[in-house]
Amino acid sequence: MAEPILQLSEIRKTFGALKATDGVSLDLRKGEIHALIGPNGAGKSTLIHQICGSIRPDSGTIRFLGEDMAGLDMAARVRKGLGRSFQISSLAPEFSALRNVMLAVQARQGSSYRFFRPVAGDRSLTGPAMAMLERVGLEKRAKVPAAELSHGERRQLEIAIALALEPKAFLFDEPMAGLGPEGSKRLTGFLDGLRHEAPILLVEHDMDAVFALADRISVLVYGRIIATGTVAEIRSDPEVRRAYLGDAA
Amino acid sequence: MMAGVSRETWISAVLVALLVAVPLAATAAGEPFYVTLATRIAILALAAVGLNIALGLGGLVSFGHAAFFGLGGYVAGIFAAHAFNGAPLPFGFAATTAMPVIWLVAIALCGLVALPIGAISLRTAGVYFIMITLAFAQMIYYFAVSWPDYGGEDGLSIYVRNSFPGLNTAQPLPYFLLCLGLLAAGLVLFWCIQGSRFGAALEASRQNATRLAAVGITPFGIRLAAFVISAMVTGLAGALFADLNRFVSPSMLSWHMSGELIVLIILGGKGRLFGPLAGAMVYVLFEYALGGITERWQFFLGLILLGVVLFARGGFLGLLAGKARHG
């Protein structure tokens, strides 16, 4: 089997006496959706921060496309091909939806130190950006400032920005949060096809979506991965049922 | 097509027309004082256009831009002094009174000084950034005060205004036109940056730096470039200001000056192309009109500033145009 796209080995992070991440190892392979689930306070956010580079682990290694990510900040990891969305939408609020995506397009082109040519009407930016908005179904809202978009539309815009980066792996942090059943269902269908473009590490509380999408699931409890396996394996794992799933399974 | 032109554009056009027409009329009427007043407006507006790149577009509240304004001023003063005495400059450069050379030196020097100041200051944010830029400017201020060679605390007089090929800069109108031309160049630069890919990244860094990093653009580099460009424009204005007054002193480097530049931007409308011009017009006219009546004119300016900050965040331009900048 080829080397995984993203590989975490023995990641540890403590805050004082709290072991937020306690020896986590997991990997993300080509073509898969790997869901990371766990109760609130399990350390999912801390783990995501370490993968993205905004928190430095105390020990352990994170390899992405075979390369050690230690010492690279968030922007550098994104340039390597790690595309992420945020748990709470993080957009440029004054920019229109289109300009938010155009920013990602110009970042991928590596051309942010051009001082003279105007971006408005630059087809090499607006074209790909508009295509991404169309993919997530937001093209009619292209001119609306991000601050005026609805919650669900902002979630869609986050996805469009991540798509525009053409990453080698996606890291989606609760993309379904607050979407409602209809929106969740649409996004589930969309992510289902996306895994073939780049594998997805999916942190999600919506168990219907997780069970529908995941090739593998890892369960994080108190900073430790207590189980990794297919949907069927996780649903029948007694420890997981006790710690987390309860009646949902 | 008329509907496509915003009210802000119309108001800006009126401001520019006033700035050009008044000095021409004043010259015709034999009232050179008003030409000097308009020159002062143009130069302060240019300095604020520079700061507006960092503050307006990038949200970087530099409380130390007087350092660059003053450095530009000292370049003009020191060149003039050496040329007057016939003494060569440090490193054996021949002194000249040619403004284009002086301007280039002022711009280059301010860029070189802004690079380390920015690189250190931009490791901080918010109120710490304000304080550290202030601290750097004060260091340069006290250096100028304590350095006797160029007048120290008393400042340095420029006996003959520096020269520009083909123009008599000693006359108020030609000098005004020079300053007006450079203001126009500064505005074109701001406009280009605002619309460019760099400007998009810079404005995104103001709105949400995490978002910028999450698309793979490191905010630090974008901000540093903006800070350096900003300092260079303000430095050029400083050289013009010294030549206008035919005098440069540490007061050009003081924190009052840094504050004044921020006030110009807030008054006019921060991040707006013509905000600094509107601000400089209001400020200078206020200083002239009320300064003649009371020494306490800045008290009334303070009241106006309070009103703008509380009720008209877009400054005078925003108030008159009555529309959000982004749509």
TrEMBL record, chain A:
Q: What is this protein called?
A: Branched-chain amino acid transport system ATP-binding protein
Which SMART domains does UniProt cross-reference here?
A: AAA
Molecular function (GO) terms for this protein are: ATP binding
Annotated membrane-spanning segments are: none
Taxonomic superkingdom: Bacteria
PROSITE patterns recorded for this chain? ABC_TRANSPORTER_2 (PS50893)
Q: Which Pfam families does the UniProt entry name for this protein? A: ABC_tran, BCA_ABC_TP_C
Residues annotated as domain ABC transporter: 6-247
- Asked whether the keyword Ligase is assigned, the reply is no
Q: Which UniProt keywords apply?
A: ATP-binding, Nucleotide-binding, Transport
From TrEMBL, chain B:
Keyword tags: Cell membrane, Membrane, Transmembrane, Transmembrane helix
Report if keyword ATP-binding is assigned.
no
Compartment annotation: Cell membrane
The annotated topology with respect to the bilayer is: Multi-pass membrane protein
Principal localization? membrane
Q: Which residues form a coiled coil?
A: none
Fetch the InterPro entries from UniProt.
ABC_transp_permease, LivM-like
The transmembrane segments are: 40-60, 67-85, 91-115, 127-144, 173-193, 214-241, 274-293, 299-321
Q: Look up the domain of life of the source.
A: Bacteria
Q: Note the PANTHER family from the entry.
A: ABC TRANSPORTER ATP-BINDING PROTEIN, HIGH-AFFINITY BRANCHED-CHAIN AMINO ACID TRANSPORT SYSTEM PERMEASE
Record protein name field: Branched-chain amino acid transport system permease protein
